[in-house]
């Protein structure tokens, strides 16, 4: 007799498939194909979430199946071609296969004895990444997300400049610098690592969202004059909203002048390194001290896959080790340098390298390049279409595959004066369109204000590698916005 849990496991593919998780593009435009949105109070009526019912209750497999079908039904199908809401989208099926195998093998990436093949796979992924970004003699580690990879960078930068901080804690007066458009994980990192949020100094950005390097130089100088202790500059390659790329070479010059650690947050834009046409965006990455890159964003590696790289071997271990002797005994029978766990901040660490490695084996660098170039080309196609359609306006010519734009509804297109009320209406339209998209359930794109540019809400649409975008899928977005906006009425409240 077969174990029922194994039977259930076999069924999971069918459940996902029936739920439309792997739907092909023909089905993707139908209403509710991407999301069947319910408010929390409604969803609570549809699925029994609570675990505080009778302590003797156990559900049989039919009930478990029903629960799974419902969870799938009310989840966002990120693999739908109209899911442009986040910096990640659909996923690569080889990557998914890798993710499933990783989970089934259920091991931790800390000692070679527990993860022999995975340890060598992680090493191969790190070596390849270091080579791509020009840090050939460096080291790295996979982290549970880009925010933690950035915090690894801050931690190493502090240790490199103030090695005694590992034992004694932070010296007084630490300050670090990042652009005003950088990801909020820098702010969280400042707080988490005891540096203090007010000691993260924001640098102005230019009209395209890139760091103003003169402002950086001036603010570092000013901090030194105030007897503060600058130790790190974070440059961003692919900012979260605008997709802007800071000029790494110019920033590296400033870091050299003041002897500061340069961390490059390439969590979003790092994937451009795989395209011969676009890798110039990351020119100067070889001058970074550390880099964070999230192949789970643009490239469709299943969440999460975040790579932290550092220019020098040994420093990760020196900075993070605590030499727990129940795991990292030095008298083991194999080469203990392969026990990567003491370089990491977490103990149990999910193996996130395998799925990416498997994708690499399948697609090769040239296959990735094609997918990345397609994402860029389709975002440029989208911008071209915008320029040819009444009412749409691009805010910034995209540097990456994020497209930021407004839509001016028909009844306002003839308005001459763009006063406060006009912009209030445009801002409210974004909220309205978003709500209607979600309720129709066949399209998701984001919206955002941007205080650094004094902008109210605008649309941020993100094109990723999976599923590969097409001209039709791009046209669909524009048509839907136009259609929904027809019903928008602006009341002066
Ligand atoms: C530019 C940038 N850096 C870092 C991160 C943080 O990555 P994660 O979401 O994996 O923590 C993000 C997330 O969107 C990002 O856009």
From TrEMBL:
Record-level GO cellular component terms: cytoplasm
Gene3D superfamilies from the UniProt entry: 3.90.1150.170, Type I PLP-dependent aspartate aminotransferase-like (Major domain)
Residues modified as N6-(pyridoxal phosphate)lysine: 297
Name of the protein in its database record: Uncharacterized protein
Alphabetized GO MF terms: carboxy-lyase activity; pyridoxal phosphate binding
Any single biological process term in GO: carboxylic acid metabolic process
Coiled coil: none
Similarity-based family: Belongs to the group II decarboxylase family.
Keywords: Decarboxylase, Lyase, Pyridoxal phosphate
Pfam families according to UniProt: Pyridoxal_deC
Species per Swiss-Prot/TrEMBL record: Polypedilum vanderplanki
Swiss-Prot/TrEMBL cofactor(s): pyridoxal 5'-phosphate
InterPro entries reported in the protein's UniProt record: PyrdxlP-dep_de-COase, PyrdxlP-dep_Trfase, PyrdxlP-dep_Trfase_major
């Amino acid at each position: 007799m077969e174990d029922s849990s194994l039977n259930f496991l076999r069924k999971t593919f069918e459940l996902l498939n029936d739920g439309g998780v792997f739907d092909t593009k023909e089905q993707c435009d139908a209403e509710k194909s991407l999301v069947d949105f319910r408010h929390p109070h409604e969803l609570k009526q549809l699925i029994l979430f609570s675990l505080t019912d009778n302590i003797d209750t156990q559900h049989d497999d039919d009930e478990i199946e029903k629960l799974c079908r419902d969870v799938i039904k009310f989840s966002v199908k990120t693999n739908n071609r109209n899911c442009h809401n986040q910096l990640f989208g659909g996923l690569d099926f080889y990557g998914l296969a890798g993710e499933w195998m990783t989970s089934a093998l259920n091991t931790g990436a800390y000692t070679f004895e527990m993860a022999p093949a995975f340890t060598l796979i992680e090493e191969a992924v790190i070596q390849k990444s270091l080579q791509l970004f020009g840090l050939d003699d460096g080291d790295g580690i996979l982290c549970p997300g880009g925010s933690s990879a950035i915090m690894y960078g801050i931690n190493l930068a502090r240790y490199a400049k103030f090695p005694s901080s590992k034992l004694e804690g932070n010296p007084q007066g630490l300050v670090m610098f990042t652009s005003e458009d950088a990801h909020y994980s820098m702010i969280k990192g400042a707080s988490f690592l005891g540096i203090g949020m007010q000691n993260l100094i924001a640098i102005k950005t230019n009209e395209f969202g890139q760091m103003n390097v003169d402002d950086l130089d001036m603010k570092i100088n000013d901090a030194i004059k105030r007897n503060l202790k600058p130790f790190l500059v974070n440059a961003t390659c692919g900012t979260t909203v605008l997709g802007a790329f800071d000029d790494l070479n110019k920033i590296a010059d400033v870091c050299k002048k003041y002897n500061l650690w340069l961390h490059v947050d390439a969590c979003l834009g790092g994937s451009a390194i795989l395209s011969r046409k676009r890798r110039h965006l990351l020119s100067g990455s070889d001058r970074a001290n550390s880099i964070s890159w999230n192949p789970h964003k643009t490239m469709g590696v299943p969440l999460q896959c975040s790579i932290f790289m550092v220019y020098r071997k040994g420093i990760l271990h020196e900075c993070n080790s605590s030499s727990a002797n129940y795991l990292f005994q030095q008298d083991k029978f194999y080469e203990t340098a392969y026990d990567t766990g003491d370089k990491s901040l977490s103990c149990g660490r999910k193996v996130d390298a395998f799925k990416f490695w498997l994708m690499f084996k399948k697609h090769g660098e040239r296959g990735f390049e094609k997918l990345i170039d397609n994402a860029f080309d389709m975002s440029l196609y989208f911008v071209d279409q915008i320029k040819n359609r009444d009412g749409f306006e691009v805010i910034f010519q995209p540097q990456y595959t994020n497209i930021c734009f407004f839509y001016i509804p028909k009844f306002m297109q003839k308005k001459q004066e763009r006063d406060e009320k006009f912009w209030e209406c445009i801002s409210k339209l974004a909220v309205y369109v978003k709500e209607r998209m979600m309720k129709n359930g066949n399209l998701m794109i984001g919206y955002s204000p941007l205080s650094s540019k004094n902008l109210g809400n605008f649309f941020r649409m993100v094109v990723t590698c999976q599923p590969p975008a097409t001209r039709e899928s791009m046209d669909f977005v524009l048509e839907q916005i136009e259609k929904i906006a027809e019903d928008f009425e602006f009341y002066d409240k």
